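Project outcomes to date are best conveyed with an example. Our students and postdoctoral researchers have been running inverse folding experiments weekly, and each run begins with a structure described purely in tokens. The record below, which covers 896 residues, was selected by the lab manager from last quarter's runs and is presented without edits.
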């Protein structure tokens, strides 16, 4: 046999492709995009090949003129046919949309229910998306907001949000990592003059603050470098809100003077209505005015006074990690150059960057908003499943119509498309209604939302919300319409056996959808029940004092902040005169009271104990008068203050039970022991003269913390709160107190005046709001689940009329038939409830942080919710079942 060496590697040369033909093929394939997708899939490749054959024939017969003729005739006709085919398809879709409107007129009640269901789901999701978009997702409304940071001071494990102006000046000089660097200080001066005195939130700012945040000045001008120079007259820029509210929007206010804590400031400008700066991040209050910090401000020389917050914009030329390293380096250099002011508990200063967006929003607010958004998403999915179930039920009633269309030649795809267009049309109508409901929901949200939710003023229906709603409508319309469309296209042609089989599949599908509805509904209802139980526990929590008949007054004493003796005289007189008012049983002064934010904190060290490496700050509270009797805090050991304590006398303190256990764990009676307030080894020791009961200082949600009470005369604070208890059943003497304070300090505003019950309500406002919102979602979920079960039961009862008639004719009791049908409904609901418990278990870790005194998997609550859902499902199925078994069996069999 001759050897065929290398023959296997030889291949016949392939014909050379004509570049012109390749170009023609690419053009024809691009022209295929003019045709509908279904046409391209089925005929596109064959049609292009046919046209290429036609082009080759023309080129062979006529040369280049044949190629030109091909594009002028065949190519143009190919493109025109594609456009006409597309128009034809659009026309058919338009016909389907008109058919959907006719269907709406034929069954207005059913379609109104569908539209309302979709509207509820889209309204909830759109409203919560709008909230989440404004609060969490959207960038801050400032230029290059992603690169905005706050520089915090860190000393080992302790972190503070402020620094000194001296350190800020060195930061400015020592780094080029920031394109914008400013320092601000929050103050609350009293605005006096025309009108009632008012306490404002004011920011003292360094040069470039308003310009760096792109504040628009609508009247007057922004601060200029000259306004920051030493000796410049005090000036102020007003916010739009203060200008409109206090000065009626009068342009003549520019150049006039306003009195802030008795200092005259010339108004040089008014910021635009849309501008709101980050402001004091701790309070979230809108800034009312901005005052330039001058070079002769004493704070520049007081490097040890950390009173200012530093805001910075990272330079785009410097990477983030390099910027962080630069800030840390400068902090270390400042600690080395000025150790007496830039070390704390032995740890040197280190500057760290905190994104301004994260500080503005806050982790707790972010988690709560995302939790609400997730609940609204579950509600939307539940609405989609409900509508799919309703449309499947409606498809059973339209069997004759769809069978007729199929017999007249309508393809499965044509019927499916019509049903899908009907679903999307209903979804779009639901979106229109949902936008209206969503707008009302957003207004209600803003009216009841607590102040702790940041950026609330930015929440509103805008173009993004409208686009979101209609994209949601298209997606949900396709989602809940796909299953009924597929079922409708396949179910109404073929043999009787195939239709019976299709009916059984439809019944199983509807049962599955009901189970899914029950699972989603149970997770939402369980969340609502858990939050309700948690809120009930909050209301029943013992706060450690008697909150009824208590009034709390917040005001600042007149005069300079350093005039401690003048403040003491004012407070002593105020306490004496308030205690003499009719109906007042007890009155006292305190730096802070339970449930009111704020307080004074200091490290605490028991006598004989070494200074810990990492200091923990505990609450200490300077008081005057019998605060414990006023608030109703029990005295457990020792005695209270006598009122004779002085700054030069023996240092004393009263501690609560928690402090006694933490600082003196080995002593059953800590009275007589001593402790020091402050981290310094030379801090003076105070004798413990009494022990009082624990108080939930931050509200019912927080456990009691160690607290040390000291006499006001031995605590260097410049403001106190007035707390007074009135006789039960009497109204607090609000007007008398206002008149008394006005008489003692004319022009001094009362910052706050409310009952202790109002303070407690404020401390649990977030929990109340979250509970209310999720409960509303749970109620809607239960409503939708009942509708879905009812529609499925009605459809099943109609489908089983013949079976039920035969069984009754053969002697079956109606009660047995009803029990059998309800047992099936309970089984489906039970399957869904089991799935819902699984979903709740998965979601429990997101819910756990918002519960008080309850586990997210509390067996009693989850069992009660599961039984509630089962009962609702059985009740919803009861009506259609009773109607079905009451039909005369002979009439059913005769009609069949």
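After processing, the design step wrote out the following sequence:
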């Amino acid at each position: 046999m001759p050897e065929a060496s290398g023959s296997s590697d030889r291949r016949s040369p392939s014909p050379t492709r004509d570049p012109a033909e390749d170009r023609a093929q690419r053009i024809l394939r691009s022209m295929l995009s003019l045709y509908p997708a279904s046409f391209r899939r089925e005929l596109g490749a064959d049609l292009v090949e046919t046209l290429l054959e036609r082009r080759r024939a023309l080129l062979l017969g006529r040369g280049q003129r044949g190629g030109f003729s091909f594009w002028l005739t065949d190519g143009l006709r190919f493109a025109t046919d594609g456009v006409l085919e597309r128009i034809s398809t659009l026309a058919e879709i338009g016909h389907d949309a008109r058919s959907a409107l006719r269907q709406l007129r034929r069954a207005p009640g059913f379609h109104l229910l569908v539209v309302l269901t979709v509207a509820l789901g889209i309204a909830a999701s759109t409203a919560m998306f709008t909230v989440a978009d404004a609060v969490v997702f959207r960038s801050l409304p400032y230029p290059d907001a992603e690169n905005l940071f706050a520089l915090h001071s860190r000393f080992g494990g302790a972190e503070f949000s402020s620094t000194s102006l001296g350190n800020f000046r060195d930061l400015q000089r020592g780094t080029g990592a920031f394109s914008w660097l400013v320092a601000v200080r929050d103050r609350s001066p009293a605005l006096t003059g025309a009108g009632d005195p008012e306490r404002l939130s004011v920011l003292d700012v360094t040069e470039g603050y308003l310009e760096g945040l792109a504040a628009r000045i609508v009247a007057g001008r922004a601060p200029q470098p000259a306004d920051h120079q030493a000796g410049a007259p005090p000036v102020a820029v007003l916010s739009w809100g203060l200008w409109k509210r206090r000065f009626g929007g009068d342009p003549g206010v520019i150049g006039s003077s306003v009195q802030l804590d008795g200092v005259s400031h010339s108004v040089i400008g008014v910021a635009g209505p849309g501008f709101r700066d980050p402001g004091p991040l701790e309070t979230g209050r809108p800034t009312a005015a901005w005052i330039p910090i001058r070079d002769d401000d004493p704070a520049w020389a007081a490097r040890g006074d950390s009173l200012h917050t530093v805001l910075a914009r990272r330079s785009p030329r410097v990477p983030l990690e390099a910027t962080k390293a630069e800030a840390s380096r400068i902090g270390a250099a400042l600690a080395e150059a000025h150790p007496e002011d830039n070390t704390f508990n032995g740890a040197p200063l280190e500057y760290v960057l905190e994104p301004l967006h994260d500080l503005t929003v806050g982790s707790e607010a972010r988690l709560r908003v995302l939790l609400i958004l997730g609940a609204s998403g579950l509600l939307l999915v539940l609405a989609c499943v409900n509508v799919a179930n309703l449309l499947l039920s409606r498809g059973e009633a339209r069997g004759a119509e769809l069978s007729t269309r199929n017999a007249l030649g309508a393809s499965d795809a044509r019927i499916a498309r019509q049903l899908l267009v009907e679903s999307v049309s209903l979804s779009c109508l639901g979106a229109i209604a949902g936008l209206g409901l969503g707008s009302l929901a957003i207004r209600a949200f803003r009216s009841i939302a607590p102040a702790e939710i940041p950026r609330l003023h930015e929440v509103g229906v805008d173009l993004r919300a409208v686009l979101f709603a209609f994209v949601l409508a298209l997606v949900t319309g396709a989602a809940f319409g796909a299953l009924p469309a597929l079922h409708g296209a396949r179910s109404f042609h073929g043999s009787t056996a195939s239709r019976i089989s299709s009916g059984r599949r439809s019944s199983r599908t509807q049962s599955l959808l009901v189970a899914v509805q029950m699972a989603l509904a149970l997770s939402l209802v369980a969340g609502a029940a858990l939050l309700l139980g948690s809120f009930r526990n909050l209301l029943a929590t013992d706060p450690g004092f008697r909150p009824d008949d208590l009034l709390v007054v917040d005001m600042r004493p007149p005069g300079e902040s350093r005039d401690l003796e003048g403040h003491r005289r004012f407070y002593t007189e105020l306490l004496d005169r308030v205690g003499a008012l009719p109906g007042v049983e007890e009155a006292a002064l305190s730096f802070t009271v339970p449930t009111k934010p704020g307080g004074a904190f200091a490290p605490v060290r028991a006598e004989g104990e070494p200074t810990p490496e990492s200091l923990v700050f505990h609450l200490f509270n300077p008081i005057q008068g019998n605060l414990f009797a006023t608030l109703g805090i029990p005295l457990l050991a020792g005695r209270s203050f006598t009122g004779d304590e002085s700054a030069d006398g023996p240092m004393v303190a009263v501690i609560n039970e928690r402090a006694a256990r933490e600082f003196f764990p080995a002593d059953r009676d800590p009275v007589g022991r001593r402790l020091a307030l402050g981290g310094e080894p030379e801090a003076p020791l105070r004798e413990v003269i009494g022990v009082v009961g624990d108080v939930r200082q931050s509200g019912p949600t927080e456990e009691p913390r160690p607290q040390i009470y000291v006499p006001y005369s031995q605590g260097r604070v410049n403001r106190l709160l007035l707390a007074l208890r009135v006789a039960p059943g009497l109204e607090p003497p609000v007007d008398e107190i206002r008149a008394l304070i006005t008489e003692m300090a004319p022009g001094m505003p009362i910052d706050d005046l409310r009952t202790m019950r109002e303070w407690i309500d404020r401390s649990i406002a977030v929990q109340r709001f979250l509970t209310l919102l999720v409960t509303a979602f749970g109620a809607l979920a239960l409503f939708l689940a009942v509708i879905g079960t009812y529609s499925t039961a009605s459809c099943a009862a109609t489908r089983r009329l013949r079976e039920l008639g035969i069984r009754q004719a053969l002697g079956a009791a109606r009660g047995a038939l009803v029990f059998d049908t309800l047992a099936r409904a309970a089984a489906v609901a039970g399957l869904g409830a089991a799935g819902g418990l699984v979903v709740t278990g998965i979601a429990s870790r997101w819910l756990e942080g918002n519960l008080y005194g309850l586990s997210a998997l509390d067996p009693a609550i989850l069992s009660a919710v599961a039984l509630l859902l089962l009962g609702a499902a059985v009740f919803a199925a009861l009506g259609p079942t009773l109607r079905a078994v009451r039909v005369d069996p002979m009439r059913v069999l005769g009609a069949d």
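Confidence is low (pLDDT under 50) at residues 1-15, 492-503. The longest helix spans residues 496-540. The training component of this project remains on track.
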